[in-house]
Amino acid sequence: MDLQLKRGLLDVCVLAAIQDEDSYGYKIIKDMKPYVVLSESTLYTILKRLENCGMLTVQTVEHGGRLRKYYRITQEGRKRIEDFKEDWKEIVTIYRFVTKEELPHE
Amino acid sequence: MNKQEFLFQLGQHLSGLSNGEREEQLNFYREMIDDRMEDGLSEEEAVAAIGSIDTITKHIADEVSPSEAVPKKRWKVWEITLLILGSPVWLSLLIAALAVVFSLYASLWAVIISAWAVFVSAAICCFALTVAGIILLFGEHPLSGVAVIGAGLVCAGVAILLFLGCKKVTSITILLTKKAVLLVKRCFRKKEVT
After folding, report:
1. Does A104 fall in a domain?
2. DSSP for A28-56?
3. What's the number of domains chain A is made of?
4. Is residue A105 part of a domain?
5. Chain A closest CA to B183's CA: distance in Å?
6. Looking at CA atoms only, how far is residue A91 from chain B in angstroms?
7. pLDDT for B152-177, tens place per residue?
8. What is the Cα gyration radius of chain A?
9. What is the ipTM, given to two decimal places?
10. Nearest CB neighbour to B34, from listed A40, A42, A66
11. Looking at beta carbons, which residues of chain B come within 8 Å of A40?
12. Among A88-97, B100-109, B119-128, whose mean pLDDT is lowest?
């Protein structure tokens, strides 16, 4: 898959993994596993990128005598998910054109 | 491999990153290992599940696209102006400093080469005096022959000592030169990364 496209999709996947509640690295990987297998190094890069873009914030919380980072989605992040849903409709239409699939009758 | 070993080795592989970034990455992997252990895996299993260090570092390198690489420091106009205006001073000082370093280095090699030359002459003297001494010993002046052979042996001793000394000093100088070149290279590479 095209690297840029894959990056964009994974960004949205990670945002989707934290859209209902704050989550931490290992839980994000576990939650995504049935759909997408993500390595730790890839997740780190995505989280860092999303944090730099202001799509999520990070809170360090004490857990079991150690520190754990929790990631919280921001309004920007939620907007990114909504934008993705809109973009996807367009992509599906283009896909139908490319594969000569007929448009559904309205 | 246990957690400490893994994090130590990973830290060494990430030496190209800034201290803050490296520490952040190590904390991330530490947390990941701890969470897996909390999930029921043993320490070794948790480390193995993270993947090999080579794969991780390759992944990090692949993930950092040219556009994401840390942008190079951009010089401001006043900095460039100051740099140009000050060039007669700093450039000449820099050239002078480099010339001093180079001349010191050249002098060091000159001393070493001279020492080798002394060694060669001592070896030749030793050979010549021994031959002359033997000729005299079996000729008309046997006593002089013994004295000349003795002088030849002294030269041999001096040559042996010089050879050992020169060899040691030469190898040390070559080693230090290699280290200095590596150090300079590393400085430039670090500047590119950070």
Report:
1. no
2. HHHHHTTT----HHHHHHHHHHHHHTTSE
3. 1
4. no
5. 30
6. 25
7. 999 999 999 999 999 999 999 999 99
8. 16
9. 0.84
10. A66
11. 28-29, 32, 50-51, 56
12. A88-97
The arithmetic mean of pLDDT across residues B182-194, rounded, is 66
Please name the helix (run of DSSP H) or strand (run of DSSP E) that holds residue A102, with its range, or none.
none
Residues of B with CB under 8 A from a CB of A: 25, 27-29, 31-32, 34-36, 38-39, 50-51, 55-56, 59-60, 63-65, 68
Q: Which domain holds residue A10?
A: 3-98
What are residue B18's phi and psi, to 5 degrees?
-70, 160
Tell me how far CA of residue A26 lies from CA of A17, A62, A68, A85, B51, in angstroms.
Answer: 11, 16, 10, 26, 14
Residue type present at position A5: L
Of the candidates A15, B3, B25, the one whose C-alpha atom is nearest the C-alpha of residue A28 is: A15
Beta bridge partners of A71: A23, A58
Nearest to A47 by CA among A67, A66, A27: A27
Is A46 within the bounds of a domain? yes
B64: which DSSP letter? Answer: S
Q: For the segment B89-113, what is each residue's pLDDT rounded down to a tens digit?
A: 999 999 999 999 999 999 999 999 9
Enter the tokens of residue B121. Answer: 């002459």
Contacts of A64 in chain B (CB under 8 A): 38
Determine contact, residues A76/A53, Cβ cutoff 8 Å: yes
What CA–CA distances, in Å, run from B112 to A15, A66, B88, B155, B176?
67, 59, 36, 19, 14
